């Protein structure tokens, strides 16, 4: 299984689109993938892989997993980091 050694997530403050955050992952402390997007879809949150937009051909994937197991692993790790960051940014309820 893919050894993800670091996850970085940066929340997007605007609610004008389905984009919730950007992220990056480090694999085996030696390879980084930037440009992951945490998006709100009809069925919940999901992770979009890095893409570039080319004139005349539309969007093109830069990096993506080749199998469902790896995609689910990356998505789980990134969404867990996002949920943790969101939880940390919520104000703590006051206790009486």
Question: What key attributes describe this structure?
Answer:
alpha+beta, 6 strands, 1 helix, 4-stranded antiparallel β-sheet, 96 residues
Characterise the protein shown here:
With 96 residues, this protein is of the alpha+beta class. The protein has a single domain (4-89), classed as Stage V sporulation protein G (Arylsulfatase, C-terminal domain). Helix content is 23%, strand content 43%. It has one helix spanning 68-89; strands spanning 4-11, 19-27, 31-41, 44-48, 51-54, 58-61. The mean pLDDT is 91.
Describe the secondary-structure layout.
Elements: E1 4-11, E2 19-27, E3 31-41, E4 44-48, E5 51-54, E6 58-61, H1 68-89
Antiparallel strand pairs: 1-2, 2-3, 3-4, 5-6
Précis, in short:
The chain is an alpha+beta fold.
């Amino acid at each position: 299984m893919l050894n993800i050694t670091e996850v970085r997530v940066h929340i997007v403050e605007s609610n004008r689109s389905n984009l919730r955050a950007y992220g990056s992952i480090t694999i085996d402390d030696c390879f980084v993938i930037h440009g992951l997007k945490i998006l709100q879809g009809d069925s919940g949150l999901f992770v979009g892989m890095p893409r570039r937009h080319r004139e005349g051909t539309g969007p093109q994937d830069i990096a993506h997993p080749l199998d469902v197991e790896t995609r689910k692993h990356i998505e789980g790790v990134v969404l867990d980091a996002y949920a943790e960051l969101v939880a940390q940014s919520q104000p703590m309820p006051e206790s009486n």
